[in-house]
Design goal:
Radius of gyration: 15 Å
Number of strands: 3
Helix content: 25-40%
Strand order of the largest sheet: 1-2-3
Strand content: 15-25%
Number of helices: 5
Structural class: alpha/beta
Order of helices and strands: HHEHEHEH
Shape: globular
Oligomer: single chain
Length: 117
């Protein structure tokens, strides 16, 4: 391998603007349009401390998963991070039920187990 190229994009519109509306997948599609030409890519959907409703999560994850399976993002790996354990569980359950391949991770702002005692 001669060189590794990283394409880093930050979506600055986050928070309740995205997660408090029923069609959050539209905001995701705005920043991740399908059919782009690129090399292997990792996308991180950072939910942080927000707790979207299960319907909003399902809409976003199922729509993203359908695009991933159809190859609309090419060689793409999705990581969803949340500081809320229950949100991570819901995301994992939705992904599993709809056969969406993704990684689910605690957010960097998640409390560590030593701080919970």
């Amino acid at each position: 391998m001669d060189a590794i190229h990283f394409d880093v994009r930050f979506a600055t519109v986050t928070g309740s603007v995205v997660w408090d509306q029923p069609d959050a997948n539209r905001m995701i599609q705005r920043f991740m349009p399908s059919g782009r030409e690129h090399g292997p890519m990792i996308g991180i959907l950072h939910i942080g401390a927000f707790r979207p409703t299960p319907n909003v999560l399902m809409d976003a994850i199922v729509t993203f998963g359908e695009d991933l399976r159809a190859g609309r993002y090419g060689n793409f790996t999705l990581v969803v991070s949340s500081s809320d354990e229950a949100t991570r569980t819901v995301v994992s359950n939705i992904a599993s039920a709809h056969n969406v391949a993704m990684f689910v991770s605690p957010s960097p702002d998640s409390p560590s187990p030593t701080h919970l005692a």
